[in-house]
Specification:
alpha/beta; 13 strands; 5-stranded mixed beta sheet
Length: 301
């Protein structure tokens, strides 16, 4: 015996109203069509569901027994329809990927993108460059859905991430700098140098790139604030200071007039793919899975 959800919906409406005309109005069908469907349902079940006379409509014992099950099935089907609608929408929606700096690093983004689009071929990826005034690359204010960013983060409790690259920290110097000819630099040689600093809004990330923890309590000297790669390059060639950077970002600054050198005495940097901790959308987690499938690291938060 196959019963359609339409039949159960019609039955539940009549059971609620105990009046065929009012139930038909609720369902936007004609009263004769509703009566016909109820009779067909009763024949399928082999028992009457309603007692009818000129004055009233009442549920039979069979109707009373069926009603809670019908309502439960209708609720479950409504929830199933909503779940399917959300999943279908996800297949055709867009994912905004924030970047504090370009991922680069041997084709990281194309490798992740190819795996992501294999799972969600109709999803639209939108890449958005976010300046360094926002350490979260748009995640905290909601302007991006997932983002490539640097650790540590000022609001780490609101985020989850994968560390996709762990790299030594280099120092970028004007090519005329006294240390530019060295193969590597001890960090103690940089303690008195003016540094280029991220904006105050970057919080702990600003301190990290100033290597505050490795200064033995000495305050850094800030030569200028920077909020993007081009500003950083211009400040370097203008002699306003030196700066630390992850090894994978060295090609972004060594355009002429700037050199980078390894720094001894510093912990490595961590570049991550992050998303909001409370974001359960399928596209977001599919992009993170794609990063893992592409051979990048396992969760670090």
């Amino acid at each position: 015996m196959d019963v359609h959800t339409r039949d159960l919906r019609y039955f539940a409406a009549v059971a609620q109203e105990l009046h065929f005309t009012r139930a038909a109005e609720l369902l936007f069908v004609s009263q004769p069509a509703l009566s016909k469907q109820i009779r067909m349902l009763e024949r399928s079940l082999g028992a009457p569901l309603f007692e009818r006379n000129r004055r009233e409509v009442r549920l039979t014992a069979v109707g009373v027994a069926l009603l809670p099950h019908a309502r439960l099935l209708l609720e479950q089907w409504t929830a199933a329809e909503q779940t399917v609608a959300e999943a279908t929408a996800a297949l055709h929606s867009r994912l905004v990927v924030g970047m504090s700096t370009g991922p680069g690093r041997g084709g990281m983004l194309p490798a992740i993108r190819s795996r992501f689009t294999a799972e969600y071929p109709d999803a639209q990826l939108v890449l958005r460059q976010v300046d360094w005034t926002d350490a979260s690359a748009g995640l905290v204010d909601g302007s991006t859905d997932i983002a490539f960013l640097w650790l540590p983060q000022p609001e780490a409790e609101r985020l989850r991430w994968l560390v996709v690259a762990e790299e030594p920290r280099l120092v970028a110097l004007p090519e005329t700098h006294r240390l530019a000819a060295c193969d590597a630099v001890d960090f103690v040689e940089l303690l008195d140098e003016p540094f280029l600093a991220l904006p105050d809004s970057a919080g702990v990330l600003r301190d990290y790139w100033l290597a505050v923890d490795e200064r033995g309590g000495r305050d850094p000297l800030v030569g200028a604030e920077i909020s993007g790669i081009d500003e950083t390059y211009e400040a370097l060639v203008g002699g306003q200071g030196v700066c630390l950077l992850g090894a994978g970002n060295a090609p972004l600054l060594t355009r002429g007039g700037v050199v980078t050198r390894p720094v001894r005495g510093l912990s490595p940097s961590r570049f991550a793919l992050a998303w909001r901790a409370d974001d359960t959308r399928p596209l977001v987690h599919a992009f993170a899975r794609a990063a893992q499938a592409a051979g990048y690291r396992t969760p670090a938060a």
